[in-house]
């Protein structure tokens, strides 16, 4: 099975992780931190907003089942890429919209994807998603992995994560794991 990895951040990683895990062809999703300048940061440090890192997920997917653009489509659907340093109730640079590309091909493909969103007027405001090279990805602590799966009735999950998962199931039914 040929695989590839995409790294994206659009608010709390619990939301993004749960949303993309719905897709058939996703092999693994890992929550973590990237885009900052602190080595091996903790959740508490990232939440302080002082590390420069964003909460992100790394999505490993089967390229025979999903294209990079499929991952991007879900990512741009389940968060608001037009707000700076904010997604829903989460505010701070750690919640910024960011795509961290792994190579020049991904850089070109995400830039073209954003250009297409802008050209078709997909959003009322301009897309502010950062597009940066991935330097280092730091895996988040174990308690943050598969958070929604482990805590579906937690208040944050019922209010913020569950609606995004439902949106993926409805809008991408043909790509959702059965």
Describe this protein's structure:
- This protein is α+β, with helices and mostly antiparallel strands.
- The protein has a single domain, classed as Peptide Methionine Sulfoxide Reductase, Chain A.
- It is 34% helix and 24% strand.
- The chain is built from 6 helices and 8 strands.
- It has a 6-stranded mixed sheet, covered by helices on one side. The chain has a two-stranded antiparallel sheet with strand order 4-5.
- α4 links the parallel β6 and β7.
- The two termini are 19 Å apart.
- The model has no long low-confidence stretch (mean pLDDT 96).
Note the main attributes of this structure.
178 residues; alpha+beta; Peptide Methionine Sulfoxide Reductase, Chain A; two-stranded antiparallel sheet; 6 helices
């Amino acid at each position: 099975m040929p695989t590839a990895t995409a790294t994206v951040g659009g608010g709390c990683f619990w939301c993004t992780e749960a949303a993309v895990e719905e897709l058939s062809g996703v092999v693994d999703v890992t929550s973590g931190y990237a885009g900052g300048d602190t080595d091996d940061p903790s959740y508490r440090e990232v939440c302080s907003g002082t590390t420069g890192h964003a909460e992100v997920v790394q999505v490993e997917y089967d390229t025979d089942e999903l294209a990079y653009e499929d991952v991007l489509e879900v990512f741009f659907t389940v968060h608001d890429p037009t707000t700076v340093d904010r997604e829903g109730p989460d505010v701070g640079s750690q919640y910024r919209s960011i795509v961290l590309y792994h190579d020049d091909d991904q850089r070109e493909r995400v830039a073209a994807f954003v250009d297409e969103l802008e050209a078709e007027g997909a959003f009322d405001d301009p897309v502010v998603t950062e597009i940066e090279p991935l330097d280092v990805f730091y895996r988040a602590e174990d308690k943050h992995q598969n958070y929604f799966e482990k805590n579906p009735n937690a208040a944050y999950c019922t209010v913020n994560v569950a609606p995004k998962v439902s949106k993926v199931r409805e809008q991408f039914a043909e790509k959702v794991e059965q």
